[in-house]
């Protein structure tokens, strides 16, 4: 299969030609036509500084479509919000709670700012991954801040209302501030996403953006929504930048006009998800089909599994060890690609597994 790497794409240009890249979390699909038109139209007009508070119509749209309430502030991206929250609500040496395995910038935001990672592993049950609420209760006394991810990256778990309600009870009891990364919220399948803030409005900062659902990672923008005092405290630790005018135009067009594109894309992703789940069963890898995101999380019998697959299968996956200690036999696979690319990658991975 000959697919030349795109030199303008991190995903396709990082590894040598011939390696199939199913790693970094963006989609191989073109953006929705209404988004492309909105970017082109905005580029024809004023590209100077926007108002510091950003596009007020976009703010109203975000709050209306998510059902979130409170203050909304734009940010350069969700990862910036993670770093800002750690700086705003904890001091060096203090502990910060999070669930592992977890998107690597969660851990980096804690570690690089000289805080202590308080890792509460997800429980792996016969039905899939679940919050370890007892473990969270045991650790909660040692922190003021919980970094949360919902839908969860890398497992794709969409938490139930019962779990979210129980988490809210623990947070209130221990005066925890919860920063909830809900970037993948529009990318769910059978189970709808319910914001954590519905259960804990007074102590939750919700981070969101269009980058994953609408494939706009190269136009970085995000937002934080929550109680004004908490949002203002976070803003003091964010970069002093203006919201990107092209990113705001793209986000507004996504919310107003890209619904049909998103529904079609979710159908493509669901088909890929189901194909990956069937393949994992065939080859005997530990896997729970994700309820959201376009990311698949596998347990393998191989130490340093991602390195093994890169060498033996020429498929680039995310190393499990980047998502927390003890996960080096796991890998994360991004299935937001074309069926022929996915089929070739799965074929190569299966052949490599035969060597084990």
Descriptive terms for the model:
single chain, 356 residues, alpha/beta, Aspartate Aminotransferase, domain 1, Aspartate Aminotransferase, domain 2, 7-stranded mixed β-sheet, 12 helices
Summarize the structure.
The protein is α/β, with parallel strands linked by helices and 356 residues long.
Structure characterization notes:
This protein has two domains: 10-30 and 260-353, Aspartate Aminotransferase, domain 1 (Alpha-Beta Complex), CATH 3.90.1150; 46-257, Aspartate Aminotransferase, domain 2. The two termini are 25 Å apart. 47% of the residues are buried. It is α/β, with parallel strands linked by helices and 356 residues long. The strands form four sheets. The protein has a seven-stranded mixed sheet, with helices on both faces. It has twelve helices and 15 strands. Residues 26-349 form the Aminotransferase class I/classII large domain. This is cysteine-S-conjugate beta-lyase. Pfam families: Aminotran_1_2. Belongs to the class-II pyridoxal-phosphate-dependent aminotransferase family. MalY/PatB cystathionine beta-lyase subfamily.
Biggest sheet, strands in spatial order? 2-10-9-8-7-3-4
CATH architecture of the largest domain: 3-Layer(aba) Sandwich
Overall form = globular
**Name of the CATH first level of the largest domain:** Alpha Beta
Class from secondary-structure proportions: alpha/beta
How much of the polypeptide forms β-strand, as a percent range?
A: 15-25%
Helix content class: 25-40%
- Supply the number of structural domains: 2
């Amino acid at each position: 299969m000959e697919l030349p790497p795109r030199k303008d794409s991190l995903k396709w240009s990082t590894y040598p030609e011939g390696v199939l890249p199913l790693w970094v979390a963006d989609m191989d699909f073109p953006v929705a036509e209404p988004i492309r038109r909105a970017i082109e139209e905005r580029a024809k007009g004023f590209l100077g500084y926007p108002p510091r508070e950003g596009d007020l119509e976009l703010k109203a749209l975000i709050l209306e479509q998510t059902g979130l309430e409170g203050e909304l502030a734009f940010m350069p991206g969700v990862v910036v919000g993670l770093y800002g929250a750690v700086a705003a609500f904890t001091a060096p040496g203090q502990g910060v709670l999070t669930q592992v395995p977890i998107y690597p910038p969660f851990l980096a935001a804690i570690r690089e700012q000289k805080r202590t990672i308080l890792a509460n592993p997800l429980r792996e049950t016969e039905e899939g991954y679940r919050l370890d609420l007892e473990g969270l209760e045991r650790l909660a006394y040692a922190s003021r801040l919980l970094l949360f991810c919902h839908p969860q990256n890398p497992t794709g778990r969409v938490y139930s209302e019962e779990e979210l309600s129980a988490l809210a009870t623990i947070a209130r009891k221990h005066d925890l501030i919860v920063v909830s990364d809900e970037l993948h919220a529009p990318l769910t399948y059978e189970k709808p996403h319910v914001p954590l803030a519905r259960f804990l409005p007074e102590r939750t900062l919700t981070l969101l953006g269009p980058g994953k659902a609408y494939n706009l990672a190269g136009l970085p923008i995000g937002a934080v929504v929550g109680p004004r005092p908490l949002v203002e405290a976070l803003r003091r630790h964010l970069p002093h930048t203006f919201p990107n005018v092209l990113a705001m135009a793209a986000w507004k067009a996504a919310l107003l006009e890209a619904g049909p594109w998103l529904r079609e894309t979710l159908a493509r992703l669901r088909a890929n998800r189901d194909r990956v789940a069937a393949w994992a069963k065939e080859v005997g890898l530990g896997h729970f089909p994700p309820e959201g995101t376009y990311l698949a999380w596998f347990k393998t019998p191989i130490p340093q599994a991602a390195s093994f697959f890169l060498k033996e299968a020429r498929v680039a996956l995310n190393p499990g060890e980047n998502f927390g200690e003890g996960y080096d036999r796991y890998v994360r696979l991004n299935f937001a690609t074309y069926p022929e690319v996915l089929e070739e990658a799965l074929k190569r991975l299966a052949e490599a597994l035969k060597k084990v």
